[in-house]
Amino acid sequence: MKKVLVIVPFPMGEEDLARRQAQMKAVDLGPGIEFHYKAVRVGPKNYSSQHDMVLADISIVDAGLDAEKDGFDAVCIDTMSDSGMAMLRSVLTIPVIAPGRHAMLVAQMLGEKFSILMMWDRWKMLYTKTLGELGMEHKCASMRSIGVTPDNKSLLSGKEEEVFPLLLDAARKCVEEDGAQVLILGSTTMHEAHGWLSKQIGVPVINPGPLTYKLASIAVDLKLTHSKATWPTPLAPKHEMIRAIGAAGAAYLEGRP
């Protein structure tokens, strides 16, 4: 049985973690592979500033550092910021799949230009960074926000009547005014809207979380992983220091000395 670790980018309990696990319902992965969800020990309250991004990188590396040693065959990172991906690729030889860049690359397989639907404007920096790294700024027709502060634990639960019409309005503007031929949900926290939105709009809508699961499965099946020429192994690994930072941060959050 192949095993994939899904790193959830916020500390949370089982009930909130289950809402993330619900993304599995959107993809058929077949037998022979199982996915295990793990919330980080530490992390920012939200991904809304450069300060937050540093904490996000550290928290995700801490959560995934031992994935290969623990018998996992691949890692998926459950955030469109792709936080920790580059760092984990440098210390692991198993595939590390993050949704931001892969959603954009797959969008290019499906159409000429894509738009990104986001909950609030403060997420724009996440996509701008990845677009720049990929040299794909000219392929992004637009980024449209619905102006709703995201909840990384309850997700869209209880907000459907408010959020879904706003997403549809933004999606139509992306297609009709901006010229998008493909839409990308700007966060894995928006996965609950995917099925509904896909039926309302006449272009493909990429659900980034389930996409990473399928890509991880393909990478494992084809025995493909990232290039160490691009993400080289560190000359002086500081794994124990990373673990110590994670442990100290967790103790701080729990009010322990």
Largest sheet, strands/sense/barrel: 4 strands, parallel
- Beta content comes to 5-15%
The name CATH uses for the topology of the largest domain is Rossmann fold
Radius of gyration: 18 Å
Distance between the termini: 40 Å
What structural category characterises the helix and strand content?
A: alpha/beta
Count of DSSP-assigned helices: 9
Q: pLDDT under 50 segments (min length 5)?
A: none
Mean pLDDT: 93
What string gives the helices and strands in order? EHEHEHEHEHEHEHEHH
Strand order in space, largest sheet: 2-1-3-4
Question: What would your notes on this structure say?
Answer:
The protein is of the alpha/beta class and 257 residues long. It folds into two domains: 2-99 and 211-253, Rossmann fold (3-Layer(aba) Sandwich), CATH 3.40.50; 100-208, Rossmann fold. The protein is 41% helix and 14% strand. The protein has nine helices and eight strands. The strands form two sheets. It has a four-stranded parallel β-sheet with strand order 2-1-3-4, sandwiched between helices. Strands 6-5-7-8 form a four-stranded parallel β-sheet, with helices on both faces. α1 links the parallel β1 and β2. α2 packs across α9 (239-253). The chain is globular. The mean pLDDT is 93.
